[in-house]
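Side project, low priority. Logging it here so it doesn't get lost.
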Amino acid sequence: MLKQLISVPTLVACMLFSTANIQAASSTAASVNNPSTVTHEDYPNHSLRLIVGFPSGGATDLVARTIAPKLSELLKQSVIIDNRPGANGTLAAGLTAEASPDGYTLHLATLGAMVISPTITKLPYDPLKDFAPIGLAVRLQNIFVTHPRVAAHTIPELITLMRQTPNLNYASSGLGSPGHLAGALFQTMTKTELNHIPYKGGGLALADLAGGQIPLFIAVISTSLPLVKAGKVNAIAVTGPKRTPVLPEVPTVSETNGLKQYEASNWYGLVSSANTPKPIIDRLQASLQTVIYMPEVRDALLARGIDPAPSTPEEFVSYLKAETNKWQKVVKFANLKQ
């Protein structure tokens, strides 16, 4: 009876409407599953997540909280910091590698998570294949700092103490961290031995150093600077190729006789998950570069011993490959294993 009440033209129109809806739904699903087909004119249209692989109080978190508000202003969307500490930043990197390639999940990548840890152990991600590089952000030096009770105020005095105290404890922000490798490189070049104590972040290690629980910490300058200025920890030497303007009186390790070739710097860069569309990467790279060169951001970084160093995605990839080649040799020579 129902079929008799519906005219043939009406029935045909209904069928065409249904078919059009199915095709539209299929097209939408294909766009969602293939981000490259999505138009990017409205990116971003909701908040972004910036995953940081270390807890609050460390240098990585400090840099993230310095640049995130300005990125929010440029992108006109909130950039929410998500601290996911663990395994020297590799937990955070893994979360980013698994995220949707839509530009809404970012990661402040570190030397430890992108170069050192992948050299030491097998990880569920490939630093060169599972991320879309946005750009290098900053470079920063490490610094040898000791508790005031430690009878070593120079690198030669520290070497003497290490030879008198086999397996002297030293801390780093984590297994495979830049501080860990800086210590390993130091041991190989001085033919001494230290006992590595990995922490789950630089802030935690610095607190124990100031409290006298550990004698030596190879930290980043930015987080240790306030305690150095207050006289609560002693700065022995910086690990970069030249002295830092924020502590010009502190020598480099390479100024010590026999250690001219010593250099162990750190860096952070911004990445997203692999296959993030190029227009989104370009937008993020341009925004990052603008933020890093804002006078208030640049001055805040320099005041903590952090050097602005923004790059293109291509330059970041080349730098990542060069760093991997350098530190693979140190890991192999020091026989580091997880």
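Brief comment: The domain at 141-255 is CATH 3.40.190.10 (D-Maltodextrin-Binding Protein; domain 2).
Revisit when time allows.
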